[in-house]
């Protein structure tokens, strides 16, 4: 085994994938990479609904604090299929996220390195379809967390519950703006959870928000089905 | 944040509803880890009637689920499940197809739990077993399946241990205990006792360890009775060794010892053995004071009672005891046995007192006779003092110019009067031994029953219920046995009678369900009170009576005991009988508690005063009543009898 600095010196192309240096769970996740089965009926799809808590909302500066996910078989939420991990943080002080999430530094001392937490989550997800509220943000956080591992990539297809809500409530062609409502607040998780009467007390933790999002997604899937969205392909179509 | 908080959220939600509200946190956590959450839109179906049972059951967390059955091509609403209701268990455990269709009436959230989770729960948590017992008694796990009633009683005992019943209640010993050394004279000891006005003295060694005990009755029998010299040593007359206990000994084990050894005092020592210092003394009197009263004491006092007032006072005590036992969740079988034993003893005492009175007037029974308890007393189910239903059956006297008739009528009147004074009201229908109509020789009783069996159309419905449950309480049991044999023979010849019996048992269907604080009737109307006697208990008691006479089961037992025998006799009815017997015991408990609370017969149960667990348990009995009625209808084709 060559020391890291020699590897870097020897070059071999800084963009080449180096799976042997990836954490084991990440290798596992990458090995499952496959084409998205677009014909698959939604009731047969495994979804992993997740939420990540970060030090803030600025992708370039902020880091992962924790991540939690729950599996779904079609529209059924499974508590026998859950994931939770915390990330060790050394530089949290002063961030406003600590206020939002009610986390204190002590809680963050135990945990995994950021890349390890993200890798384990991805291994848990496997070939499931990832679901999150404002998914783009969480997907980019995941990608950023494993960025150090060259060649590794978050390849999972993803569904954004905020977009899906808009789509199944109003249809693809209409928008709330036309009716003068503010689409941003109308499709925030808090608003949707209240609108759908979802009662989850542990909000604003990764686990609480993941469960709330799962229960929201459950309802949206039913609505989607009535709009003729039956396969994974239908669901992922934009 | 680990996913544990997700599990906790779900566990807390589940714990809002019985029976999950009584689970230990570890069990709840284990259960929550296997939950699947399902969301149903309006009209979505969970399962169809006739579908094979899935290995899962459902808890409604939010919304409403309608339970419907197809009857004669019509859809009939049989139940509505709302927050906290559980469904799908019965078919699951019985491994038979679903008996109904379940469909969301509203947007509904279900927690789906696995069959395995349920089995583990029944195994690890007897209280949960009891919760499901009303509906699913026949489905308890295998080892205990042999005697389901016992299994459920076990569960109750287990539960009771958690309350402050006798099992955990402790006697407060007298700490200021009177002691003396073995060399004290009898005279000194006696004067110590009378000086302190106590009934006993402990003889201790120099270390204050107990050696023996002398009580006032020892003084009476051994000193006064035997003419012993009072200057002798106390150690000559002491009872030794003394029974020792520690101060953690429970009341129930003390009572057991008192009854077994006929000893009335215990020395309390530091470690419960005679090797340590005496710290106190407990007498049977203290035990009774703590316990209030005890069935064996009431029984023995009752059989010695000389006056009617005393009988009444003792029966009042029994009622107080019953109330506490009911609240302590003592097994229903034990309770009804205890109360019938007390009632029987009271009746026997009343008969003996009456016979004495007649003897003083120079009247003796001319022939042998048998006192018959009828109705609920005949079934040994009279927990509360309700109306009297009784009769006298005497041997055929031959030509005697009405001597027997006059004697037994006089006896009947005297006994009924005493019973009235003991708090048993007169039967409004005058079905009592004081009525010449129900005070007859054997031949007349046989004619009477033959008539009822031959022409069932002509008898008042009430009579079948009351007379066919006769049970001998005092006198010549052979007379009762002969009458019973006669009835079995007549029924064998004319089975159409059973159809009328059965029809009677199907007259009152149970309500559909409870919904919130109302009872839902089949017609859709709602009520807030429920006639538990007519709508649930009588159908089960009536059905057991039909089957017992049909199958020739010769017992005088309670409805629960009858169902047990029916299950043993007729394999096809085993499951249903288990459920019915269990349901009946639950109904009896509900009724007795209601009656004690309201000071009435407990016949009308007020739904809004029941807690969720009680409502669930009660509701679970309805489907059993309905199944029993369906069974009777098909077995005896009661539809054809109009």
Please give a structural write-up.
The complex is a heterodimer of chains A (238) and B (642). Chain A is an alpha/beta fold and 238 residues long. Helices cover 40% and strands 16% of the residues of chain A. Chain A has a single domain (37-236), classed as 2-Layer Sandwich (Nucleotidyltransferase, domain 5), CATH 3.30.420.10. Chain A is built from 11 helices and 5 strands. Chain A has a 5-stranded mixed β-sheet with strand order 3-2-1-4-5, sandwiched between helices. The longest helix of chain A has 21 residues, at 206-226. Chain A is globular, with a radius of gyration of 19 Å. Residues 8-14 and 172-180 of chain A have low confidence and may be disordered. Chain B is α+β, with helices and mostly antiparallel strands and 642 residues long. Chain B has 4 domains: 4-124, Jelly Rolls (Sandwich), CATH 2.60.120.10; 179-291, CBS-domain (Roll), CATH 3.10.580.10; 295-328 and 330-479, no CATH class; 498-640, Four Helix Bundle (Hemerythrin (Met), subunit A), CATH 1.20.120. Helix content of chain B is 48%, strand content 16%. The longest helix of chain B has 29 residues, at 332-360. The radius of gyration of chain B is 30 Å and the shape is flat. Residues 134-168 of chain B have low confidence and may be disordered. Chain A binds chain B through residues 53, 66, 68-70, 73, 75-80, 82-86, 197, 199-202, 205-208, 210-211, 214-215, 218-219, 222, and chain B through 1-10, 12-13, 32-39, 41, 62, 109, 112.
């Amino acid at each position: 085994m060559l020391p890291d600095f020699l590897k870097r010196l020897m070059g071999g192309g800084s963009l080449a994938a180096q799976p042997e240096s990836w954490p084991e769970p990440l290798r596992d996740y990458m090995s499952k990479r496959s084409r998205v089965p677009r014909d698959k009926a939604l009731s047969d799809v495994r979804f992993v609904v997740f939420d990540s808590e970060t030090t803030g909302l600025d992708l370039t500066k902020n880091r992962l604090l924790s991540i939690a996910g729950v599996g779904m078989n079609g529209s059924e939420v499974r508590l026998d299929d859950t994931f939770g991990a915390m990330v060790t943080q050394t530089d949290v002080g002063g961030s406003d996220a600590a206020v939002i999430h009610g986390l204190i530094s002590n809680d963050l001392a135990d945990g995994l390195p950021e890349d390890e937490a993200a890798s384990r989550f991805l291994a848990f997800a496997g070939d499931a379809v990832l679901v999150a509220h404002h998914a783009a943000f969480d997907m980019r956080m995941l990608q950023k967390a494993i960025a150090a591992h060259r060649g590794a990539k978050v390849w999972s297809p993803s569904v954004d519950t905020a977009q899906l809500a808009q789509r199944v409530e109003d249809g693809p062609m209409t928008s709330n703006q036309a009716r003068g409502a503010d689409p941003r607040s109308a499709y925030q998780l808090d608003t949707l959870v209240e609108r759908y009467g979802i009662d989850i007390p542990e909000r604003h933790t990764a686990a609480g928000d993941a469960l709330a999002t799962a229960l929201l997604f459950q309802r949206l899937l039913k609505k989607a089905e009535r709009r003729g969205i039956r396969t994974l392909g239908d669901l992922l179509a934009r | 944040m680990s996913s544990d908080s997700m599990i906790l959220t779900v566990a807390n939600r589940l714990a809002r509803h019985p029976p999950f509200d009584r689970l230990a946190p570890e069990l709840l956590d284990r259960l929550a880890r296997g939950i699947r959450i399902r969301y149903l839109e309006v009209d979505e179906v969970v399962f169809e009637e006739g579908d094979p049972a899935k290995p899962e059951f459902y808890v409604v967390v939010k919304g409403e689920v309608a339970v419907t059955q197809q009857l004669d091509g019509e859809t009939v609403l049989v139940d509505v499940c709302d927050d906290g209701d559980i469904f799908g268990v019965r078919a699951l455990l019985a491994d038979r197809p679903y008996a109904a269709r379940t469909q969301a009436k509203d947007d509904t959230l279900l927690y789906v739990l696995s069959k395995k989770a349920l089995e583990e729960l029944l195994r690890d948590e007897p209280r949960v077993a009891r919760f499901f017992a009303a509906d699913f008694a026949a489905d308890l796990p295998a080892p205990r399946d042999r005697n389901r009633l016992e299994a459920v009683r076990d569960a109750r005992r287990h539960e009771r241990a958690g309350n402050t019943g006798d099992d955990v209640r402790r006697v407060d010993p007298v700490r200021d205990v009177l002691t003396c050394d073995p060399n004290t004279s009898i005279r000194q000891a006696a004067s110590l006792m009378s000086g302190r006005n106590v009934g006993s003295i402990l003889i201790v060694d120099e270390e204050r360890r107990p050696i023996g005990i002398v009580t006032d009755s020892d003084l009476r029998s051994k000193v006064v009775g035997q003419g012993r010299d009072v200057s002798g040593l106390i150690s000559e007359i002491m009872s030794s060794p003394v029974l020792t206990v520690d101060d953690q000994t429970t009341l129930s084990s003390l009572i057991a010892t008192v009854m077994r050894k006929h000893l009335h005092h215990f020395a309390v020592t530091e470690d419960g053995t005679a090797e340590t210092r005496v710290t106190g003394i407990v007498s049977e009197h203290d035990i009774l004071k703590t316990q209030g009263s005890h069935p064996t004491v009431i029984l023995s006092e009752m059989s010695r009672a000389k006056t009617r007032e005393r009988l009444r006072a003792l029966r009042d005590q029994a009622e107080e005891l019953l109330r506490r036992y009911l609240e302590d969740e003592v097994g229903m079988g034990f309770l009804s046995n205890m109360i019938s034993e007390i009632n029987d003893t009271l009746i026997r005492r009343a008969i003996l007192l009456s016979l004495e009175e007649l003897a003083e007037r120079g009247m003796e029974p001319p022939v042998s006779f048998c006192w018959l308890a009828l109705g609920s007393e005949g079934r040994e189910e009279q927990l509360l003092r309700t109306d009297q239903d009784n009769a006298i059956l005497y041997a055929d006297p031959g030509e005697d110019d009405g001597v027997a008739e006059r004697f037994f009528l006089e006896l009947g009147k005297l006994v009924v009067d005493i019973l009235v004074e003991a708090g048993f009201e007169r039967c409004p229908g005058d079905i009592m031994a004081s009525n010449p109509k129900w005070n007859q020789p054997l031949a007349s009783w046989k004619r009477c029953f033959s008539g009822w069996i031959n022409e069932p159309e002509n008898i008042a419905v009430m009579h079948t219920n009351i007379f066919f449950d006769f049970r001998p309480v005092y006198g010549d049991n052979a007379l009762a046995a002969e009458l019973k044999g006669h009835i079995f023979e007549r029924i064998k010849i004319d089975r159409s009678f059973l159809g009328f019996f059965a029809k009677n048992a199907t007259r009152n269907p149970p309500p559909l369900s409870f919904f919130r604080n109302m009872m839902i009737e089949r017609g859709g109307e709602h009520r807030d009170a429920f006639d538990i006697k007519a709508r649930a208990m009588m159908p089960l008691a009536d059905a057991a009576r039909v089957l017992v006479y049909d199958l020739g089961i010769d017992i005088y037992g309670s409805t629960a005991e009858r169902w047990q025998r029916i299950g043993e006799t007729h394999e096809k009815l085993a499951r249903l009988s288990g459920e019915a017997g269990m349901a009946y015991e639950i109904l009896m408990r509900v009724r007795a508690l209601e009656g004690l609370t309201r000071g009435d017969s407990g016949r009308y149960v007020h739904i809004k005063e029941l807690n969720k667990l009680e409502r669930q348990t009660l509701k679970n009995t309805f489907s059993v009543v309905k199944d029993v009625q369906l069974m009777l209808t098909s077995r005896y084709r009661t539809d054809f009898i109009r």
